[in-house]
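[step 3/7] fold_predict: job queued, chain A
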Amino acid sequence: MSVLVLGLVIFLGVHSVRVFAESWRTRQIARLGEKGWKSAYALASAVGLVLVIWGYGIARRDPVVLWAPPVWAPHLTALLTLIAFILFLSAYIPATHFKAWVHHPMALSAVLWAFAHLLANGTLNAVVLFGAFLVWALLDYRAGRRRDLALGQVYPAGTLAKDAIAVVGGAVAWAVFAFWLHAWLIGVRPLG
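[step 4/7] structure written:
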């Protein structure tokens, strides 16, 4: 479990710099340059992610069961992760209603993804992993909304055509991941 926790501290710590240390981040970008900052950020993120994956794999070998997920949990998880995929994609598509409504669809997608996985998993390692991501994503979303308010950020109105791209693309990506990639990469078939 210690490898998982270390990986989470590094990965989520790097991704929390803008949430908790915006002025330090600005100074580092000025000192290192944008490319230098992005390189250091990417390297630390990659190290953290590798440790998270490795640590979660180690913890899965000897799971500590905290509760048995209810029989309906996989179905609700599937629905919530579908919405998360759509929101995630909409973060990269300009002028969607999703971005206009929620302002930070990627952070909100992480909230839904983590919450959905907490519903479907009752082991200690899952609670540590998905609980950490849930708390981080909520804090990140709140910080983003506060930045928007402070800056008077206005998001452009969405269009149905852009929404359709996000919905169809997100649904296709979700289906590929849910029916094939999740089993191949994670070793779990979420939909049987």
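[step 5/7] annotate
The radius of gyration is 18 Å.
The chain has a mean pLDDT of 93.
exit 0
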